[in-house]
Structure formats: structure tokens, C-alpha cells
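Notebook B, p. 112. Complex prediction, attempt 2.
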Amino acid sequence: MSSVSKYQLKIVPLKANNNLLMKRITLLILMLTLCYACKESKSENSSTKDSETELKGETPEFAIVIHGGAGTILKKNMTPEKEAAYNAVLEEAIRTGYDILKNGGTSLDAVTKTINVMEDSPLFNAGKGSVFTNAETNELDASIMDGQTLNAGASAGTTTVRNPIDLARAVMDNSPHVMLSGKGAETFAQEHGLDLVAPDYFYTENRFNSLKRAKDQEKIELDHDDQQASFYDPEIKNFKYGTVGCAALDKNGNLAAGTSTGGMTNKRWGRIGDAPIIGSGTYANNETCAVSSTGWGEYFIRAQVAHDISAMIEYKGVSLAEAAYEVIHNKMGKLGGTGGIVAVDKNGEMVFEFNTEGMYRASMNDQGDIKVEIYEKQ
Amino acid sequence: MSSVSKYQLKIVPLKANNNLLMKRITLLILMLTLCYACKESKSENSSTKDSETELKGETPEFAIVIHGGAGTILKKNMTPEKEAAYNAVLEEAIRTGYDILKNGGTSLDAVTKTINVMEDSPLFNAGKGSVFTNAETNELDASIMDGQTLNAGASAGTTTVRNPIDLARAVMDNSPHVMLSGKGAETFAQEHGLDLVAPDYFYTENRFNSLKRAKDQEKIELDHDDQQASFYDPEIKNFKYGTVGCAALDKNGNLAAGTSTGGMTNKRWGRIGDAPIIGSGTYANNETCAVSSTGWGEYFIRAQVAHDISAMIEYKGVSLAEAAYEVIHNKMGKLGGTGGIVAVDKNGEMVFEFNTEGMYRASMNDQGDIKVEIYEKQ
């Protein structure tokens, strides 16, 4: 109230003093500018709401962020050896993309090659290490999107393509289509010289045991008429919805995102989750951001997670951190879904956001600052 | 300048005149309110931009709008008999949904049963009358979404399910999944007692001839190294991307949308278009609108057509008509795509929007006013 006690606005008849008039007009303009600035600053404050998951940095030349799945990943259930193994592959993966970006490569190449490292590791539910379907097969999905052209590629339900993200990329680059599926997608992969493997390449004992436990659990569930119970077995839950993904910004300002997965343990009926769905599992747009999702795919489709984050930035003018928080916690989360996203925006701001106990994740900026994390609270 | 010539703002030391002070504070508040009102009015003006395709009405109790595909549909290529046949099925379809809504049925039931009528007609590229794949099979896709719960169901690449929209509905209602595909989806359909048919149920001579022409055309294209040439054959182009779809608002204020298709003539590699993709071919949200798409599916996925219209309403506060115009003409259209949408918003406003020469379409409001149209300019 101190300013009010000293000054007030008064409307007075105009006197013929031009000098005074000019001063007062200037003052009026100043006041209006101040009002406007206040309003802008208010909207900025709400959009730069500090998020624990926001990774701070100075407008970087390039940036890369990855995930290796989200779920009930608790430190108490992890051995130091297992933790070290995850950290090592996450670091190898992100450094692969970082080197490409540092040397002036494209975000699309960084995303593809970074995901390849995680697909080739049995630790993650993508490529080698994919979970088993109810029919004891491995059916893999992937998608990729180019933020510059809004071109995209995806494949669903392949059993012989070693690196599904390469197939998604080939669909984008070498076909008029966005999404191919099943045997047809494998024929396309063969026609385009992709690396094919026998279906048992994807076998890992760990994942096969998960399927057996899931089936045993399902019998109990059916007996108890409670089809959701398997979600409470942490080991199954972890790999029920795991994926790998990457989002990157390159030196030319081009964004890209990609996602690859084995889907959910014990899946049947040719179930397709969010990973190969553009707008749900993957989205990139140079005007906004690049996003890769991981989690309970059905909820990520219903909440349109990846595109909704972009749309909120585009139409509401909020920051990536705020959009990601809103979509994961207040939209997808409130529907009942669990999981998270990694994302980078056109300014190189990187975000991890998830509503699970953990998410395998890493980020690197153009200074080479690396962050590799697993649990909610490191 | 007349007010400036009479009055001006002046900052003066505060005098101990409470009455005057109150008057001046009231004046200041009035001025700020005026400023704010101006700003609001400006943003409202931009959102109520008149659209030719907007169907006017008084806040109706319910509303329903359908399409039967968009393409190069020209009056000069149409016989009166063919035109009458299309109009008759469009009218039968929309009256089916109208009756359900009028009797207090749900928008989901109206959407499903309305689409069934078009699926059962050989005139449209969905159900009976679906186009042929390169392998001379019919592989059908569909999706449906409930705007009240944001639940959704979809199926891709089925060959024996008579009404794919019923399968999408069953996936939504009776499984924890959103999207099923191929043989697995057919197993699910069988387990849930859906109407199954032999694959040759979908055979129609007309569509088989289209495939033959497309293949002949492709040979010419391959000779000329121009894989896009078939897009210039109007007969092929018409049914290359046709679908059927419906969006409805019921008396309880619940929105729903659904889409069903045979995909594109001569498709291969297990290609999946936008029809079964939630957010691209179909989207419904009680907070905004319900949308069903038809057109060149790849562009509808890349532009996230159905969800983008909803997001623009939600975050930018524009009208359905304005959002639909922007997405079809300035976003999807500028990427190079062709096609259109039908949509209804939470207030019962209905919109047709397309950038092709025609779209089979119809609408009915709660007064029973019916509109059945085919060409761009009726």
C-alpha cells in the first residue's frame, strides 16, 4: 500500500502545455508496458514451474535423452552388479548418440543408433531381451519420427527383424507408408536388406521365466476372477510394459524421437501397444519437442501422451517441463496409467517425467555432461 | 484523440479525500476491466470465424454426423442411379443412429450401428465392399473411442470379421487392450461371439477390378520409375483411401467416434493406415469433440488429425469449425495429404471439412433436420 499512499491516478482536464502532455503520454505508455510485462512474466512463471525432473542447461547446440523402460524399479530389489550393468549400457547407448550429434550427425541417426545399442542388449525389453507373448513368441514393435518433415515410420508384430527401429526408419525413408505390420513388414525388411535373424535370436532365459510366472499368476487370477492381479508382481510388471526410446536435437535444430519394444509379457490376440503408434509412443516436431514414451501402452494411447505434450506447448505456450508434468501426472496418470517419457524441446531443454518408482534413463548435453539414473530419487 | 484532448492521466500526491479516492480506484478498476474485456473479445472473434462447412443449430440435445469416404468424387463421373444409391445408404445409416439417439441411446451405440449399415453396403470401402490388397485379400481395420471415459478399441488387418467396428467395440468393452491385430484379433473376435464370415464374403467385382487396374497401373509406373502415378487414376484414387465413419453426441452429453475401412487398394507389407489409429483416424473426448477421419492415411497419422483438432479446441480455445479448417487445410493439407473429417463438439456443433473434390457425408440434428451431400459444392 506504500505507493498508493503516496500517489494516485487522476483524470484532469487537459491544459495547453505540450511538454507536460508529452511527459504524461510517455508515462501512460510506460504504465501500459509495465502492465503487459507483468502479464507476460506471470505466464512465464507458470510455464517455467520448477520441476525436479527438468535438466537445466544454457541453450545447447544439441542434446540427447534416452530411456530403457519405466516400472516398479526399487533399489532394494537391485544388486550392485545388475545396477552397474544397466548403467553401463545406458551410458554406452547415450554416448553413441552423443558422438553422432557432436560430429554434426542428424538427430535421426543419433536416435536410431542409440536405440540399436539398447535393442542389442538383453537387459532391455526391445530387440534381444524382448518379452514373450502368450504363444511363446517374441513380437516386436517400433516407431520413429522426424521433427523436420513430420515424416514417420513404424512396424508392429515382427519376429525376425533384429533391430525393429531400423525397420521403422526404412519404412519412413523408403516407402510411402507410415506403419507396416506382421509378415508383410518382414517381407519389406527383407526387400530392403535389413538384418534378419531366426526367431530364437530373441530368446532369453530371464524373459521366458517371466512368461512362465505370468502364466502361473494368470491361472491364480482367473481362479480369483481378478484379471488385474499380475500387475502386482513387480518382476512381471517391470517387463510387462518396458521399452527403450530416445529423443534428440541436432546442431541443425532438427528434432527426432524413436521407440522400440517387445511389448508386454504374455500378450495375446496380436495386441499392439503405444510404442509403434505415432502420437502415443513417439512424436517429434521441430516447432515443439521430441518425445518417446514407456509404460502401460493402453493408457498412453488413450491419453495421446507424446502428441499431447507437443500440442500443449504449441497451443498453450507452456514449457516442455510443464506440459510433460501435466500429461504424465494429471492426464495419463489420472486415467490410471503408469509410465513415463523422455523428451527434448527445440531449445535443447531435456525432461524425464514418470509416475513410477523408477525409469532407466540418461541424458547428455553439448558440453558432454552426462546423467545416468534409475530410481525416482537418486 | 478526442478523449486525449479532453482528459489525461496524472499522478498526483494523495490527498485525504476518501470519497474521491474510492471514485478514482473504481475508475481504475473499470479501465482495467475494459482492457481485459477488449482482449477477451479479440480472442473470441478469432475463434468464431465463420466456416462454410459449419452446420448451424441451436444447442441441440443430440447430433450425429457421418462420412462414407473422401476423394475425387465429381458429379460429371456419377450417374443419377449411383448418386441415388449412395444417398439412400447414407440416409439409412444416419437415420439408424438418429433413432438410437432420439430414444435416449448412447453415442457409442449410435456410432456402432450407423457404421454397421455402411459396412454392410458394398458401396463403401469398409466391411462388404472393402478394397483388395496386393495379395488379393481384404484386410480390414477399425477403431472406436468413448469421449466420456477416453476408453478406446481398435483392430487391424482382420479378414474374417464381418463388422470390424463391432470388433473394435468388443476390444474396448471386453479387454484390457486398445488395439489388436491380425489372426490374434480374429481369435479374440471368435472368443467374443462376433459374426465371422469366410474371407470371400468381402469379394465384390467392382473392387477386384480396381485392384487389377491398380496393378496394371503399377507396372506402367515401375516402367516410368514414378511410383505416385496411380494417384492420378480417379477411380483408383477414390477407393485408395476411402473409409466410413461416424461421430455423435447423445442426450447425456457423451461424445463418441468410430471409423472402419478396407484400407487402400493394392496395399502390401501389412500396411496399417490411420483408421485404426486412435488420435489419427478416430478421437473423442467429452471436453472437446468427436472426430472421424477419411483420406490418405499416412498424412492423417503424421498430422495427428483427429487429436490435433481436439487439442486445438482444448488448449487454444478455438471453435470446432476453426480447428477442423486449420488442421485439414493448413496442417495435414500443407504436408501434401488429402481427405477430410466429420466431427461434432460437446455443444452439438457439427462440421464437415475436407480438401478433396467430394466426401460422402450426412448429418442430423435433434430436430430431425437431415443433410445428405456428396460433392464439394452441392
